[in-house]
Amino acid sequence: MADLSTQYMGLELKNPIIVGSSELTNKSDKVKELAEAGAGAVVLKSLFEEQIMMEVDAQRVNNMYGSFNDVENYVSFYTRKHDLDEYLELIRSSKESTDIPVIASINCISSSEWVDFARQIEKAGADALELNMFIMPNDPNFSGFELEKIYFDLVDNIQQHIKIPVALKMGTYFSGLAKTFIELSKTNISAMVLFNRFYSPDINLEKESIKASHVFSHPDDFSNSLRWIGILSDQVDCDLSASTGAHDGYTILKNLLVGAKATHVVSTIYKNSNTQIQKMLEQIEKWMDQKGYQSIPEFRGKLSQANIKQPMMYERAQFMKYYSNYRDV
Ligand SMILES: Cc1cc2nc3c(=O)[nH]c(=O)nc-3n(C[C@H](O)[C@H](O)[C@H](O)COP(=O)(O)O)c2cc1C
Asked: How far is CA 193 from CA 26, 115, 169, 226, in A?
């Protein structure tokens, strides 16, 4: 039987399936069920930077006035403190109920005082921390360079506070994506997750209003992660995990072939329940058996850009050839 184990961020995973941050991982009993269903690791639901900063602000008010002298501040402090305590408890209880790696997660847009809180996440027992960076480059006052600097400042800041491995979950809005990601990978982070899935707007034509686009990914959405992991896996100094559009074991195999160490999955678990994990593992194992592979390192990265004869396959962005030959395909 094939060995599906993989190392990711210095953690030993029994297989490359990581259940990504979402409401699937917001309770320790759900984490336990995911582990029993076969997940290699979980990323807990994200705590928001704003949630942490509200506590920092409330403490500042408290220090200034000696006590909470209005109900509003007290309520704000209590609510936030409650959120943070609850999150630390989620980490502790998830660790107690499973033996798979538990990765905490913070949604952040800046490098500021919230970083102090990461130390408590470490103390609560998280095996690693994933930072979901969602900086939307929509402010015309900020250049690409200024926005990218926030990532480097944050990495520098967080590494002064904690020793557990840190992963950056990245978006795609970078003009010099390859250079930025390669430089970030040299900063002592342990991994990058490609890519984050942003809320996307859509239009309700009937009501002539804005609505949210699909929450879940589609199985065809995997190729952007595949392209960039294929291009970067031989050039970065950290691990890469794919995220977005992995709905079956075959896509996880494709991600491994281009150099990923693991794959985050969320939508397919929502759609098909935890039993999907076992199905994906069986697909991976069956393919490995058919191909005669006993372990993942035997084929991981075999089809990365550096390892194929036609590296242009990763760079081709135009469809010209496909349009002219479309009928023949
Ligand atoms: C309902 C839902 C909630 C999510 N919540 C978070 C979150 O709190 N933090 C985060 O980093 N990603 C969050 N994500 C993104 C997922 O972790 C994952 O990166 C994304 O859905 C792509 O994977 P998929 O194609 O397997 O769904 C969420 C996704 C969904 C569908």
From this structure: 20, 20, 4, 12
Mean pLDDT within 281-302: 98
Distance, CA of 282 to CA of 2 (rounded, Å): 10
Ligand 1 atom 6: residue of nearest CA? 22
Enter the pTM of the model: 0.91
Domains and CATH numbers, the chain: 6-328 (3.20.20.70)
Residue 58 is predicted with a pLDDT of 57
CB atoms within 10 A of CB 32: 17
Question: Does the pLDDT of residue 329 top 50, yes or no?
Answer: no
Q: Other CB atoms closer than 10 Å to residue 303's CB: what's the count?
A: 18
Burial of 68 from C-beta contacts in 10 A (0-12 / 13-18 / 19+): middle
Per-residue pLDDT tens for 204-246?
A: 999 999 998 989 999 999 999 999 999 999 999 999 999 999 9
| Pocket (CB within 6 angstroms of ligand 1) | 20-23, 45-46, 105, 107, 132, 169, 197, 215-217, 243-246, 264-268
H-state helical runs in 44-202:
49-65, 71-97, 118-123, 144-159, 177-185
Of all protein residues, whose CA lies closest to atom 31 belonging to ligand 1? 216
